[in-house]
Amino acid sequence: MYTLLVNSGLSAEVTAVLPRIETLVVVLFFALFAMSFDFISGYTGYLSFGHAAFYGTGAYLVALAANGKIPLLGPETPFMLLLVLAGVAAAALAVAIGSVSFRLSGVYFAMITLGFSQVLYVFVRDWDFVSSAPRDGVAVTGTLEGFRIGVPWVDGLSVAIGQLTGDSVEGLFGFITLSPTEVSFYAVGAVVLVCYLALQRLVHSPFGRTLIAIRENEERARAIGYNTYAYKLGAFVASGFFAGIAGALFVGFRRSVTPENGFYFLVAGDALLVSIIGGFGTLAGPLYGELFDATVREFLSKEGGGGGLLPYLRANVGDATLATEIYNGLTVAEAIDTFLNGHAALYVGLLFVLFVLYVPNGLLGTARDRMGGTLAKAVPRRLRRWFDG
Amino acid sequence: MSAIAQATASLAPVAPVGAALPLQFADALIEFLSPATLADVIVRGIAEASLYVMIAAGLTLVFGLMGVLNFAHGSLTMLGAYLGGLVLVATVAQSTGGVGRLLAFGVAVVVAFGALAALGGGLEIGLVRPIYDRPPLYQILLTFGVTLVLDELARILVLFYGLQPTTVWQDVLGTKPAFLANSVGVAGVSASGLELFQILFGVLTVTGVYLFLTRTRYGLFVRAGGEDSEMLSALGVDVNRVFTVVFALGTGIAGAAGVLLAWDPSWGASVPLAAETLLPAFVVVIVGGLGTFRGTVVAALIVGLVDSSMTWWFQNFVDFTGLPEMVVFLVLVLTLIVKPQGLYGVSEVGGH
């Protein structure tokens, strides 16, 4: 699909606008994190501002285990096992944090989770056990092989992921050839899909319905006889579990993690951002939100490697136009460089504010409202009516 | 002090473990409790408390009246630091004397307060007002978005003028009068001039806000609006205007705090200052209890003293860089566990 578009007539435009495959892998695991965030915050209405703690736990667990820093888990531990262990560790942390935090509600809940995650952030940032320079994070140095997704201990049924360490596939079914990053994309995608389906199952179970009841009117849910504390804690633990898996996938692909992109509270802020843009309280929404966010960020990225606005303009707009002075010696090229490149946060932030004000249900939520149901059901119905009509 | 001692004792394994650890600990404790050290730590703690109360006062005013937890507060402080820094750099020359520099500082505070109050008023009317009737979550989201935009705008402007956004703007530190950097010895306790200046500034702000709340007609509206804003509007007060004024006042104080921070070498004007001030401000406001000014002042004192004593322990005994910061967040967590509404919080405020 991507190759098809890139080789089409609008090749330059398509390369500029569409994100690269490396970005799409990031989209996948971060979307899983955002989904887990949305699962607790969007469905129960409890804003878990310290959600980065679980993501960071999963990420650090994999990195430390691969470096042989964790007893009983050598560098040879299969990645699939690490994935589950990362989830379990994050879930255990969620039990600890949640059992205290769910005595509070509203703003206080957001603040106490934020407090916990910042304690962990500072701790990990300055704890010299994790690496010799804990502020710069941990890189996987204990093993040179890629982390394998698939059936553990069976090389034929698993693939390694990572940009440099991943497997490439040649001639599968005679015609499919995939680069290591593309293999990573499908492998990570498979894990994310399984997690998504599990979360989806939870949301549509009686358990998930109760969570929505808690969001809408907690007192009434309690009056009917639900132990809301237990439900909220259960949801928090499940959410922590999947956030841990997302963190593990992150290290599996990137092979390094820093306190800033693992534990810092703004990581949870990013999850919040993409959840809102995609649709708060819709499980798939964060995926679209993250896809959108990543696309904008890459379009305006500083490096401009592969796609993006800068190389597109350089290639397709004349030098004379770019060198035109707008104001006081400031050329067009410089203006773009100053105001657009690397500053996607500004535009995403503006858009976010507009979304909060005018599209509170986000992309997916609004689409569902328009169509009157989930897209999977509503679109065929519309089409059928259109063809019959 | 015993609570701090226990907290430190539990953290002690982080320190280089020797055979005589309890002995070293006792030594350090005795040194910590000696009058000279204690007085030093207390003075530094009060100076830090003054900074914290400046950062948090605006946040607590806005929350107390409107129930809006303003995530953009840190960014507004950061903008204040840059604006004030701009005024200071523009007006202070190499030859300007100490008094002249203090005057310039006064001008900078006034400019930052005015500009940010105007910006805050605009934000309230344009963005916050339409969503008062939505769940509190949306106000957090909205102001969080405003933070992203403000930070990125600041980063663009700072880069445009050839400064590094992530490092402290050194020129502003250079405009500080020399006598603020010297230590003053009073009755065996030495404090730097800057610390005394910060304490003075903090006390002035607290007094000012307190007088505003208790002695002026508007302060009366603010306190009444915090209790029941519908009733207030039924009595014929234009509540929307009160909201706007308080929001403007809160952001103005944030701006003034920013100017004060721009002179402090351990903070300084930089873009990351936004997040650096937002988090302690949250801690202070939550520990004190959302929306109570008295609680905020007390909590700022607690956090300031904890911070300065933990800094001492880190420098002298515990080998862990993040100790003060971590303990400050632990104070937040512990307070919420023991007293879920904060020290002076009222149960209705904040979605309880």
From TrEMBL, chain A:
Protein name, UniProt field: Branched-chain amino acid ABC transporter permease
UniProt xrefs under CDD domains: TM_PBP1_LivM_like
The keyword Transmembrane helix is assigned to this record: yes
Pfam family, one: BPD_transp_2
Subcellular locations according to the entry: Cell membrane
Residue ranges of the TM segments: 21-40, 46-67, 79-100, 106-124, 183-199, 229-251, 263-288, 344-364
GO-annotated cellular components: plasma membrane
The entry's keywords: Cell membrane, Membrane, Transmembrane, Transmembrane helix
Predominant localisation class: membrane
From TrEMBL, chain B:
GO biological process, one term: amino acid transport
Membrane-spanning residues: 50-72, 79-96, 102-128, 140-163, 196-213, 242-263, 320-338
GO cellular component terms, A-Z: plasma membrane
Subcellular location: Cell membrane
Pfam family, one: BPD_transp_2
Membrane topology: Multi-pass membrane protein
Keywords: Amino-acid transport, Cell membrane, Membrane, Transmembrane, Transmembrane helix, Transport
Domain of life, source organism: Archaea
Main localization of the protein described in the UniProt heading: membrane
Family: Belongs to the binding-protein-dependent transport system permease family. LivHM subfamily.
Name listed for the protein in its UniProt record: Branched-chain amino acid ABC transporter permease
Organism: Halobaculum halobium
